[in-house]
Amino acid sequence: MRRGLAAGNWKMNGTAASLGEVEVLKTAHPAPAVDILICPPATLLERLSSVASGSAIATGGQDCHPEKAGAHTGDIAAGMIADAGGSHAIVGHSERRADHHETDAIVRAKAEAALAAGLVAVICLGESLDQRESDQTLDVIGAQLAGSLPDGLTGANAVIAYEPIWAIGTGKIPTIEQITEVHDFIRAELVARFGAEGEAIRVLYGGSVKPSNAAEIFAVANVDGALVGGASLKAEDFSPIIAALETAKG
Ligand SMILES: O=C(CO)COP(=O)(O)O
Asked: Which of 148, 96, 87 is nearest to 120 (CA)?
């Protein structure tokens, strides 16, 4: 059985004061029945990793550059995430695909760089509202899976996050039937491409996950956890989401 994963993406939020939230989570979840991951802004990764050290909380970056090093002002290499104590790298988030014009090919190259640095790649995909309303969701997700996923993915080196763009930060979530349909589709595609490992790769749902809706989302068989934005910033919101995942998947 796949172990649940509660992942927090702090996006461009957080300062040194936010490290206190991690202290609270550490105390509240000393031996969780699921995995916990926090991806803070790069400025906090090393400090947060040190606060989380010795606890059940893993840390990661929100992006990585495809290259190992070089003249790429403002970018961060996967090896630097590992050096700062991170074990995961989110790649292909819709905000990066939109703000930084990242294509599936770029996302794939970034995921490959993450794997080469020994990180777990958390590869994000999801449809826009237009695509959802014109019934293209599964086509879009299929194309993103085909284009963004490197070869050789396993349950140990990759996580997929399905995040419908229109559900991110909006308070709207798809119906449970829609979440079930997409997650079942992703699972089938993963198994078709990666065989038994496709069964082991965790598939997270992301987009307006809150303490109030977490339990119903986690009840879906092929939802293995969540990639949480806003509700991961405060321990008082993230902690009940972790607890709901423990109840559903622990
Ligand atoms: O984009 C997300 C996580 O990567 C989801 O963000 P919200 O939980 O704030 O909707």
From this structure: 87
User: Whole-model pTM?
Assistant: 0.98
Ligand 1 binding pocket includes 168 (Cβ within 6 Å): yes
**What is the CATH class of 5-249?**
alpha beta
Catalytic annotation present for 29: no
Instruction: Confirm or reject: Cβ of 228 under 6 Å from ligand 1.
Output: yes
Q: Which of 176, 175, 170, 190 is nearest to 220 (CA)?
A: 176
Q: What is the pLDDT of residues 158-206, one digit of tens each?
A: 999 999 999 999 999 999 999 999 999 999 999 999 999 999 999 999 9
Q: What is the ipTM of this complex?
A: 0.99
Q: Residue 65 gets which letter from DSSP?
A: B
Listed in order, strand segments (DSSP E) in 144-193 are 158-162
Pocket lining: 163 vs ligand 1, CB cutoff 6 Å: yes
| CA 207–ligand 1 middle distance (angstroms) | 5
Closest CA to 123 of 82, 152, 80: 152
Q: Which residues are annotated as a binding site for substrate?
A: 9-11, 169, 208, 229-230
